[in-house]
Amino acid sequence: MDNEEKYRQLTEAADWAGICALNGVALDAFGTKKELGVLREHLEPGEIVFALTSGIVKHSETSNSSDWGSNTWLIALTNERFLFLDCALLTRSVDVQSIRLDRVQAVSSSQGWVLGKVMIDLGSRMAVIDNCQKATVAVIGDLANKLLRERENARSPAPTRGGGPSDDDPIEKLERLAALHASGALTDGEFAAAKGKLLGL
């Protein structure tokens, strides 16, 4: 991720406005001042915040019982997850929900005239954050998909030279010899000699 060290420093300093400025957007604290105040407490050790937005998330089974209907949540995109925070209106309790990046298939953003929304595709369902600040949804979508690509590339094995099997793998060499023998390209004697040479016999 570009500027990862800068994001790390800003996260450690709890400089949420600085992270937004690094992304070229203004900090959207409307309805989420309490959540911004407790965000650092809910981060895991070494977790880095890359982007922030706030938006409406429908009431769920895990929402505070003192809240009704849809609530404004703070959403933080980190190097590990989407972190959702919602402070209770009448108490000091905080609803915390996470969507780990390894569960996310894609992230889409949609911008309207004034506001936008973020859609997180989890395969079996879609998590939607609506009524977000318009500029922040594009940032969240772009950075989230970049993180997903980087994670996917890190899991994929590096291609070998020429895209074929490694020249140093004796098992693959044996398999190629066996295929040549089975196709009739090598006689029994040639196959035995090549196999013996490969195995050092």
Rg over C-alpha atoms, rounded to the nearest angstrom: 26 Å
Largest sheet: 4 strands, antiparallel
How big a fraction of the residues is strand? Answer: 25-35%
Q: Helix proportion of residues, in percent?
A: 25-40%
The span between the termini is 50 Å
Q: Quick one: CATH superfamily of the largest domain?
A: Pleckstrin-homology domain (PH domain)/Phosphotyrosine-binding domain (PTB)
Tally of DSSP helical segments = 6
CATH C-level class of the largest domain is Mainly Beta
Oligomer: single chain
Mean pLDDT value = 84
If you consult CATH, what is the topology of the largest domain? PH-domain like
Low-confidence stretches: 62-68
Query: What is the topology, as strand order, of the major beta sheet?
Result: 1-2-3-4
CATH architecture grouping of the largest domain: Roll
Query: Strand tally, please?
Result: 7
InterPro entries: SHOCT, YokE-like_PH
Protein name: PH domain-containing protein
Domain SHOCT: 172-199
Organism: Sphingomonas sediminicola
